[in-house]
Structures are given as C-alpha cells and as structure tokens.
What does this fold into?
Amino acid sequence: MGHKRPAEKNPALWRFGAELTRLRNLAEMSQRTLAYSVHVSPQQVGAVERGERYPSRAFAQAADRVLGGEGVLVEIWPQLHGGAPPEALRELVKAEPVATMVREYNPLLVPGLVQTENYAGTILRAGNPLLGEEELTKLISARTRRRSLLNSTGSPIVWLIVDEVVIKRPVGPPETVYEQIGLLLDLIEQRRIRFQVVPFSTRHHPGLSGPFKILSFNDKPDAVYVETVAQGEMVAEPELVGPITLLFSTLQGVALSPEQTVELLRQRRDEIYAR
It folds into this structure.
C-alpha cells in the first residue's frame, strides 16, 4: 500500500481515510471484517483510515464494492498521488530500464510489458469499471509505452512464463487475442523475449501462488516485484528473493520448451483464424 506520510501533509489521504471509516460504520462492519473481505490485514485497514498508509487502486475498488460506496473511494484515489502511480509501481518503472534481466511469471494474463494496446485496453476496462475513459486511456498508454524497453540499446534479457490458460482465455473479441499472440511470436522471432508456457497437463504445478517479477542488475542484488489485489511491493531482502528465484527456475523446468511454446502459440493463432 505504499509508504507512510502524515495525513496533514496530504488532505486527500485524510479524506480517503475518513470516507473509508464513514462507509465502514454505515455498513456496520469492523475493520477486521473489511480486511478479510478485501484480502488485507486489519492493521492495514486501520492505517489507511488514520491516513498513515496509501491504499492501492485495487483496495479502493474492493472497499467501494464491499461497503457499497458507489465509486466514492475510487473517485478520491487518483488525488492521493497527484495522478502518480503508487510508490512500488514507480520503483518498478524506474528499475526495469536499468535491469540486465527481467524474469516474470504470470498465471492469469500476458505480462504487461508485452501487451498490445487492444489487449491492455480490454483488461484494464474490465478490471476498472468505475474509471472514466480519460483515465483509462492514460493507463493504457502508460502500459503499452513500457514495451519500448524491448527496443532500446542495452535492453534487458526478458524471460516470460505464463500458464496455458493465458493464451487460451478469450479476451475481448477474437481478433484481440489473435493480435496479442502475433505480437508474442514477433518478439520471440526477433529475439526480444524468451517465452514459455506451463501446460494444463502439469500435475504438480509450482506456480499457483500468484504472479511475480524478478529484476537483476549489474551493480546491486536482485529484487522482486509482487502484486496482489490490494497492493504492489518491491522486495530486495535476499532471504525472500532467493526462494522466488528458485521458484522461477522450477517453473522453467515444468514449462514447455521455447520451441514447443512457439508451436503452441501458432496452433492457438490458427484456431482463432479458423473461426
């Protein structure tokens, strides 16, 4: 949920906390019950209500939904950062261009770094139903601009792993997935990315705990970025990064080879075209 900052230095943060408290009291819901409903700790809910922690957009959406806020919290949320993304996401955007390697696993979606505009737009519109078109357009543009990292001099090695469901799931009209798979194949052929798919047939799947991203650097230790429905976090402690790095290696072992993955992507694209 971001770093702490006194509420008196950010009126919008105080307003968000006060509105969250008001809605929770109207709903006759305890902090613990709300925390359970939006998948965070009661301490985090309390800190947000006191104006000591920054809530994520996902937290604002979830709390609005659970408390029947009719979009009040989502409306306030952009004011907290003056339009800037949360701290952890800012760290990620700054870190990616100076990384020597980016390894990412996502069991649900094509990673944002290689999403097409149509794919990103479909995902962001579906996941942010209360946002206006202007703000959605900014989010889509910000996400697709990140792909320029793959075309820059000295760009990092990018190794991506997804579950088979990611390329089989319908996302918007058929042409959206067709276009997205086409981009993946182009990036693989151009040697911009390395890409693997964990097949449905994997009986002992090591990656069911959720998505993560590992960033490696020349001049400092690896860092991991993890994101949940409630918050994003950049982690650098070796005792936490080490097991996640090992997990990525394990996923590489159970995934289809890069050559088999390309064949699967081509088959999926042909299936869409055949319709």
In short: Residues 7-80 form a domain with the 434 Repressor (Amino-terminal Domain) fold (CATH 1.10.260.40). Residues 1-8 have pLDDT under 50 and may be disordered.
